[in-house]
Protein: NAD-dependent epimerase/dehydratase domain-containing protein
Organism: Trametes pubescens
Amino acid sequence: VTGASGFIGAQVTTELLGAGYRVKGTARGAKLELLQGYFASNPNFEAVEVNDISSGDLATAMQGVDAIIHLASPLAGRESPEAGLNSAIEGTLNVLRQAVQAGVPKVVLTSSWATTLDPSLAATFAGVTFTEKGEFVGLPLLRRTDTFLDWGNTSREDLLKDGHHALYVYCGTKTLAELEAWKFAAEHRELDLATINPPFVYGKPVEGLSSGTGVMSLGTNALLYQLIAGEPGRPLPPQLPPYYCNVRDAAHAHVLALRLPKLPAGADVQDKRFIVAGPGAILWTDAVKALLAKRPALKDRLPTLADAPPLPGPLSRVDTTRAREVLGLQEYVDWESTLLETVDALVEAEKTWK
């Protein structure tokens, strides 16, 4: 498991160990020590140091390994656009190349729902349906209804232009990295590749594996933190794509993908591309109303609902049929439970920052 100390990686590692798997988890620096300490009592876990996933030698980490779950990836805003793009693509390809060289037959890659649309995310409010496979429709046609989107349209040149915000670059980077992974898989049919494509992942982190303090340590949970951080009476933040996946569901999807049989000869390699997303959506107006009702002590920390702007268009739909029918992911944590457990964890995390 690469990135085993991360938000999703820690959940994946915990579930794998609970199911009886033997796990090697990669990390570097202080996070390696964190992993070693947290799982010290579990004989089925081994922490392995990998300083650079994009260019490092992974032979030791892959020795005796039957499958890889690759989660390590740069976070939005942590690196320059070019560095983030290079590390995401080269990190993915380095893992895949060395997996083939080491004879590791199966790789599960963490990607993103954001690869199904252009990195502007404009199609979120265009009344379309996001799916793993379907007719690709370019941005000028997104106002048509009954349209299915499966891949965003972007390029390295576009992502490196000035003026793009960190989330735009991150989403485009995930798209290009996943496309390179599928291209590699098509050229190396001995490799059994699956991708897990969740939207924003929220939830309670594995206690004891969190590192760092402050907002920059929160990962995607920072998007929900903005609902309880700021001046009283402030307006709602701009509405992001409201699709979500609870971190436990995202982790479980990776484990389910690990158990799938290899595709038959001649099958489309992308048949193991899975969008996983909880039912409903976390719209900021609904989230604030839920927090007012269920966490009234936070009332003075919430933005006002006065003059809340309408959605910019009809909310598009995320199709999770393949995850249900092929992957076997039947149930998800609902949006309100995910919101509340995340906010509760954030309030607790704040206490360690002081």
Summary: Residues 7-351 form a domain with the Rossmann fold fold (CATH 3.40.50.720). The first strand starts at residue 23 and ends at 27.
